């Protein structure tokens, strides 16, 4: 069959050329569709269920929310395990499925099970599924803040929306913000009602999470003495507010042939409306809210905050839909944010603080550089060794065409382009089959020309080209098959190993298959079209030079083989001994350029205290001349995708380009050392330094942020905590161990109210 393909390719060479152009066009289109990222996504298939119940403590959350949810998920097809977090007012259950499970099927099953278990959960607990994203989903962060806080450095115009001369802020709706809390709540309102809906409309965005500011509330601060004087209670005040905040409709009224919609809108729209709401009547006189208290702008109790360059801000995270192209989605999100900025209220601006596309572009630039240099090196070697420009061009053309065909194959098999998959391509292996066919064709054409003593006719050239290709079919097939077999074991890997190395093996095997097809079709056809006229098959100077020096050594090796055999054995033994001295690592660590500094305080630290300590850290780090930007996410966010207690913070340090670093900073290690020096005087913080993607991968795969974690299982929490501290003390003695700590499970003070039921009765 292969022989017939070769013969057909030579006879219908122009058709092959046209089909090759079609394949090139298709490949160019496919390469624009190829998902691009920095590293392969090794996150397992998982569904996160977050539940907020602010009135429940950790023990009650575990008993009333976490345990019922985990129990409800048991038995779902494909479920491997569940793990959970129970904190004050928050529960998160992570259901991990097998890699063969369709993620949409898993989410559907989880949703059905949660609906069935709804009656077993507290009435105020509403489980929600985390956005359909992965460990690589956090692709874009942006901050929402005032450009000139308190109007400093800005010309103010009283009465016009924006900053006023007294330091207050007048919103476009006419609301005056006088307190820091009200200003922070307004930033959060802008994020939740103006920016977030538009950012979620960007193609490929799974969700937008927010840290910082306050969810705006209108607070009624009752005057208890006034309530007593009017004979009112706080409960009656609350009931009155519910009655005053209504909207009702009464269908239509027909008049003069027209229908008029009747609607009574009594919803509260401003502080003035709330103040004028009637609570009760005394002797025919209405008692209004302003008579029994005052109304102010407040914020809901928050479990998280955000900060930027030493000031509080709203930090938002754009989460990418699973399987999408991170570079395209991040770029689209940045462009959308630029458009949104044009319509924001005066002096409010949204600015990107972390953009994954920069890392992806840098990674792809590295891959492109390596691939380009490798391709050029192979082409130069081909020109030097083949000694025929036309033959070298035919062989070199196999490289770009193979790349385009590989891109189409990667799309079809769902493999993304990243440092592991694209970086594995070996152009020497790709052109191997084409080289031997071209070399043999040149030899046969030259010999036939020498034998005939004239230039060959077209039929003679076709005949020799076909025979040359057929002669090389067997070594070509055997060579490709051996390489294929080498990479087949990688396809059997499971879990993280499979997601890391299988894309590399698949990409290389697709490239080899593409090159093999080209060597049987494109290469013979191009030889038949291009290689005309006189053909000389002489050895080039580098080959002759090498043979002159190699022949005597080969003669001595054949005459006296034992010394050479012993020498080879000695080299092998030395290599084995040297290999034992090498360090071992699962895969090389990607330098993401950006840095994350995770800080932990005592468990009893409130979110406000944690935020203030975080601002001190930012003020210290932003003074480093090599740092361009510092921002932080403190505590838990809205969606709970990155659950942290109030005493924990993630600080993102974005360095400047290397050419802007000071003279004393030579590498990233120097930056890390200087960060630790700046943070050392700031007591009360336990620090872990990692990288953004590395940290999220660790957390989503194993539930912890560390590179290496030891998990204990048992029934006695106190005994496990003591054992964990002992293990940590042993781990600190291991050479190379950096930050070693045991997770703190106690130390958060609580006020336990014990009910005396007899007295209460």
TrEMBL record:
It is a multi-pass membrane protein. Keywords: Cell membrane, Membrane, Transmembrane, Transmembrane helix, Transport. It is found in: Cell membrane. It comes from the Bacteria. InterPro entries: AcrB_DN_DC_subdom, Acrflvin-R, CusA-like. The chain crosses the membrane at residues 12-31, 375-399, 419-438, 477-496, 502-531, 564-583. NCBIfam families: 2A0601. Belongs to the resistance-nodulation-cell division (RND) (TC 2.A.6) family. This is Efflux RND transporter permease subunit. It comes from Sphingomonas floccifaciens.
